[in-house]
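Quick one, tokens below. Sequence please?
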């Protein structure tokens, strides 16, 4: 009885160790201005017989994606909504290419498998099949942080969300009142008498002659 308990405990620890490094599948929403693509390989019934698990490498428009996929694993990509080719290669030998026309706001499910003769099988499946099979897979790699890739077809969800917030919240421009005061010289209203007196003072100071003073006086009186 003790041996049975020890064996069960060892099997439990083995299963926990094997599955502990995989992040369970989590469905994501499509970020604006992008297409969401799941690529996965479901667990085969024959796996676990001691043979090496199939390993698939992915290329986006002939550019390698650094994270490889094994059976029971998946990756999720936010790609630009445009025409592009996505390929899966089995053990760097057999390759299958899918020519995709990705649409904005759409989600795609791409399944990878292998045939008995060692050929890769790569196909697009509908949502019901894709979600059902994805639920029993784990994220490829040991964490959700994928290695840096040099694929320009990727879209960063954080940058897209920040851009959406900036577009949604328009900047508010608050007019600043000028602190400078405009000084307007006071309007002086001179009477005809005042003007004649000024002209007289100019005559007395020799600025204008007697004849000029008389002419100024006539002009002032005729206003």
């Amino acid at each position: 009885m003790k041996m049975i308990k020890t064996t069960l405990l060892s099997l439990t620890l083995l299963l926990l160790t094997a599955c502990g490094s995989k992040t369970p599948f989590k469905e994501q929403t499509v970020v604006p201005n992008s297409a969401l693509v799941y690529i996965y390989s479901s667990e085969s019934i024959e796996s676990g017989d001691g043979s090496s698990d199939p390993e698939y490498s992915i290329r986006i428009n002939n550019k390698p994606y650094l994270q490889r996929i094994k059976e029971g694993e998946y990756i999720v990509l936010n790609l630009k909504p445009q025409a592009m080719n996505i390929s899966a290669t089995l053990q760097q030998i057999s390759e299958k290419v899918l020519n995709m026309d990705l649409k904005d706001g759409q989600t795609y499910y791409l399944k990878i498998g292998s045939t008995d003769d060692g050929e890769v099988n790569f196909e697009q499946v509908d949502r019901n099949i894709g979600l059902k099979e994805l639920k029993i897979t784990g994220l490829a790699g040991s964490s959700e942080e994928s290695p840096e890739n040099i694929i320009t077809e990727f879209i960063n969800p954080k940058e897209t969300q920040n851009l959406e917030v900036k577009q949604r919240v328009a900047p508010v421009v608050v007019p600043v009142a000028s602190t400078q005061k405009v000084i307007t010289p006071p309007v002086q209203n001179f009477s005809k008498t005042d003007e004649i007196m000024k002209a007289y003072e100019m005559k007395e100071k020799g600025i204008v002659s007697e004849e000029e003073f008389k002419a100024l006086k006539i002009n002032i009186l005729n206003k």
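The first helix runs from residue 2 to 20. The chain has a mean pLDDT of 77.
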